[in-house]
Amino acid sequence: MKNVCLLVMCLGVPLHVQAQVALPNTDNQVFFTDGPATAAAVADTPTTTFRTGVDLVALNVVVTDAAEKFVSGLVWSDFAVFEDGVQQDVSFFGATSVPLDLAILLDTSASMSDKLKTAQQAGIGFVSTLREDDRVSIIDIKDATKVLFPMGDDLSAARTAILSTTARGGTALYNGTYLALKEMTKLRRSAGEVRREAIVVLSDGDDTASLLSYDDVLGLAKESGIAIYTISLRSKTDVLRAAQAGRHYFSQSDFSMKALAQETGAKAYFPADISELSGVYASMAEELASQYALAYTSKNPKKDGGYRRVIVRVTAQPGVRTRTRNGYLAA
């Protein structure tokens, strides 16, 4: 029963449920219903169930207030979910954390030579925030992409892998991100336990060596439902030149990384200096531990491969903001 709950909550794609399961009915745990979830149903029955053969659209949702602080303590009835403008019935809710699979992608091209040591130490610190049941992989991005440490829970080996990186060559950023998406999707399908998934990409410049394009990566990201957090380190020289010209610095790479993060419900970071990297990783770790999990059965039964836009709102607290992936492919 527990594995079924995790399966629904962790997947970022529509899920076809194959069994009927009864679960504890509390606001801080998950629940399913045969129809729309209602306060009366939750109060009057000790357990609720979900139907055999139901396709659930699962979402991980970040909620923040006006000060960008994470909002905790919300319950299922505080949320409203809309698909293509039509409100959906929330049939699944989770406010407890589940294990995380995290892929850390490091740009180790020649341009990172003067920043690599600081990036290594920040990456080691990020790995150290993972919990006992979490797993991590370390992927090195140069002209070619290399998996230095495959997905696993040996955090000491992951830290050693980070320290083994050296700076040289070009940057195949899109190739590396595409590979990470493929590997995590494959692992999800083969594993008996499904987990939360996220990719964190660190780079200091434009892609110079990929055979794949940004559109290739974005298309696969929409299919996989995996959140992609991006960190773009900017050249002080480029930023200074832009300031002297009276404009803000924003490269093509910055645009791509920001759009990729927004589309997948993640966040893009643009630290002004490499010294801020540890703080960026700490912010990501806090966010990953603060997500809510929601799911619903779409009121649109068509499986036409079209892209469905999704919006999540919190109705109980005016002024709070939500962030989740922008939609999914109805296939």
Please report the number of helical segments.
9
Task: Give a quick account of the main beta sheet: strands, pairing sense, barrel closure.
Answer: 6 strands, mixed
Approximate shape: globular
- SS-based structural class? alpha+beta
Mean pLDDT across the residues is 81
Folded structure, characterized:
With 331 residues, the protein is α+β, with helices and mostly antiparallel strands. 30% of the residues lie in helices and 27% in strands. It contains 9 helices and 17 strands. It has a 6-stranded mixed sheet with strand order 10-9-8-11-12-13, with helices on both faces. A hairpin with a 2-residue loop joins strand 5 and strand 6. The longest helix has 18 residues. The radius of gyration is 20 Å and the shape is globular. The N terminus is likely disordered.
Summarize the entry for a quick read.
This protein is of the alpha+beta class.
